[in-house]
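Section handout, structural biology tutorial.
Before the tutorial, make sure you can parse a SMILES string by hand: atoms, branches in parentheses, ring closures as digits. In the record below the ligand is pyridoxal-5'-phosphate, and the chain has 209 residues. In the tutorial you will relate the predicted structure tokens back to the input. Do not try to memorize them.
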Amino acid sequence: MNLEQILEKAKNVRLVAASKYVNAEIIKEFYYKGLSEFGENQVKALSEKKEILKNENLAIKWHFIGTLQSNKINLLIKQRPILWQSCNSLKLAHAVNKRLDYTLDTLLEINSAFEESKSGIEPNKALEEYLQIKEECKNLNLKGVMCIGTHSNDVKMIQKSFETTYKIYENLQKYGANICSMGMSKDFELALKCGSNMLRLGSILFKSP
Ligand SMILES: *Cc1c(COP(=O)(O)O)cnc(C)c1O
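Predicted structure of the complex:
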């Protein structure tokens, strides 16, 4: 799939380029090809790439999509990302909330694959935790949910994890949720069918010939 075909498929949703595979120079190239939202999964990489590009006058919207270590919270806050997609516990929400001096748009990460190795909140606790964060963490502006699809070749399993996340998202819409971030390079077309409105694509953009 070339970039044009990917952009066509993603035309009705927000496309976040997961740029962990590339340096600032390549990010700039893709910006001029029409991408404007980029997501990093390490705070240090985010701050470094942002720093390199800061004098270029690019209207890049930076997302943070990775696991947030507590010793990186201040550095993340300094970056003022447009969206923190990976809030994965009430404890972490409180830790970030406490140090914020502005309102940070945030997604709750759902472990809809029920995988030990994946971070995120268990689906059956998601609604309650979402509302609790909303109530207790006034500097976090919860905008919806994010999930990483089941790591499997079994399409049914992946679909199930997306459906689980979408159901939570549907229930949260009455509380103002409007972002359902799911779908990566291998499963984004399925994610779109399941109701995703934000894709995070990495290898398909940056690693194809
Ligand atoms: C790397 C990454 C992606 C993109 O993964 P690809 O399979 O390369 O498209 C999406 N979300 C997160 C959280 C990532 O770390």
